[in-house]
Amino acid sequence: MSFIKAMQQRYTTKVYDASKKLPIEKIEELKEILRMSPSSINSQPWKFTFVRDAKTKQKLSEVSLTNHQKVTDCDTLIVFSKIDNIELFEKQINENLTERAVGYYVNFVKSKGEANIRNWFDKQVYLSLGVFLSACADMQIDSTPMEGIDTEKFDEVLGLTDYKTVVAVAIGGRDVEDFNQLEKKPKSRKPLEEVVKSI
């Protein structure tokens, strides 16, 4: 299947079939895809937690607001988190990045204050999210990005230190009765000429 066809057929899964399991090979491939995700100056201010354990998914489902059933029934829940320890982040980039890359961070990110640094971390995580959702579409894996979760409670359940949850993605196999499938609810997008300008 072509990539454009995969994107045309992709939709946000609303109901999962808990009996549908993904091959471990696909899970491992998705891990590597996330590792290879792009980030500004190769900063990589993130961590990705793959949750397949039923007890942990149950605990996370209880703090997932309206998304609780998706968390319970999906095959795997991936939690995207950003680094929250700026001192640790700066130590990492000083040890691993070029002087020019560190200079960009200091002059164009850090110079605008701590709030800007944390916002910049969020942006990098969302770059990886876009890559991940596209990969799932290409691999014909159903997915659901979710901001509707209690991120602080997620941090507690997962025991995250120095990182904070930003967003989560459920992946697995759709339920045959999922009301959001394209044959039941066609994809709605603005016309090309409204969103793309050619000069």
Automatic annotation (TrEMBL):
<dbReference type="GO" id="GO:0016491">
    <property type="term" value="F:oxidoreductase activity"/>
</dbReference>
<feature type="domain" description="Nitroreductase">
    <location>
        <begin position="8"/>
        <end position="172"/>
    </location>
</feature>
<dbReference type="InterPro" id="IPR000415">
    <property type="entry name" value="Nitroreductase-like"/>
</dbReference>
<keyword id="KW-0285">Flavoprotein</keyword>
<comment type="similarity">
    <text>Belongs to the nitroreductase family.</text>
</comment>
<protein>
    <submittedName>
        <fullName>Nitroreductase / dihydropteridine reductase</fullName>
    </submittedName>
</protein>
<dbReference type="InterPro" id="IPR033878">
    <property type="entry name" value="NfsB-like"/>
</dbReference>
<dbReference type="Pfam" id="PF00881">
    <property type="entry name" value="Nitroreductase"/>
</dbReference>
<keyword id="KW-0560">Oxidoreductase</keyword>
<keyword id="KW-0288">FMN</keyword>
<dbReference type="InterPro" id="IPR029479">
    <property type="entry name" value="Nitroreductase"/>
</dbReference>
<keyword id="KW-0521">NADP</keyword>
